[in-house]
Amino acid sequence: MLQSEHDSEATSVPSARFRTTHWSVVLTAGKRDSPNAEKALAKLCTTYWYPLYAFIRRRGYGVHEAQDLTQDFFARLLQKSFLQSADPHKGKFRSFLLVSLKNFLANDWNRNQTIRRGREFSFISWDDETVENRYAQESARQSDAEKLFEQSWAFTVLEKVMGELKREYVAAKKAGLFATLQVYLSGEKNRVPYAEVMVTLNMSESAVKMSVLRLRRRFAELLQAEIAQTVTSPKEIDEEIRHLFAAFNP
């Protein structure tokens, strides 16, 4: 599991960036004069399609039916008329999605309008074996559908942040450094001793410690930026990050 370092090491998310990426994307997408807003919303939803799919599966639906329902739900979500009813004052974007999904399932929305899987939404990549292997592992640890949704969301956010962090290091021609030091983002106690890493990287202990510090700081910055997309105020970011890591608790 990854470790949160945001309290002491992270740089605050710039307010200008926050204003263009949080709930305002959802609200703007509900307006007719926002041609690019739906694309922005779809990008935001990349974090949520799997947690929503896992929730549906845990509610007892089969693989292909859950896939169809996930597609149907996003088709409804991206309708301007539906988005106009969204209210950021009623909770986090994650909560808004889950409540909307529950209502969608309860109302048996337009099942005859099923969208062919993989055709309509580029942010959903159906690989039955990969998706179901992940679902089997996660559902084995968590039987409650809502808690599974929360854990799946947390895992997805961390995977997304780690992927971005890795891309930055690869672009800077530091892939080897990232591969060696990423273990220090874990909260596990049995981590590789610095002495071992010093030999592997041919670096001094102080250089290794500084590199680890920079890695943790950048991870925290990227995590804050990702979370900022889904809350209504910069003040809520730290609370949401704490909630993210708490999702891993039994």
Describe the structure.
- The chain has 250 residues and is mostly helical.
- The chain has one domain.
- 64% of the residues lie in helices and 0% in strands.
- The chain is built from 14 helices and no strands.
- The protein has helices spanning 6-9, 15-19, 23-29, 37-45, 49-58, 63-77, 80-83, 93-107, 128-141, 145-171, 175-181, 194-201, 205-228, 237-246.
- Helix 3 (23-29) crosses helix 4 (37-45).
Task: Provide a short characterization of the protein structure.
The protein is an all-alpha fold.
Topology:
Elements: H1 6-9, H2 15-19, H3 23-29, H4 37-45, H5 49-58, H6 63-77, H7 80-83, H8 93-107, H9 128-141, H10 145-171, H11 175-181, H12 194-201, H13 205-228, H14 237-246
Helix pairs in contact: 3-4, 5-6, 5-10, 10-11, 10-13, 13-14
Q: Key terms for this structure?
A:
mainly alpha, 250 residues, 64% helix
Q: Care to count the β-strands?
A: 0
User: What general form does the structure show?
Assistant: globular
What are the segments in which pLDDT stays under 50 over at least 5 consecutive residues?
5-21, 114-119
Number of domains: 1
Structural class determined from secondary elements = mainly alpha
Largest sheet: none
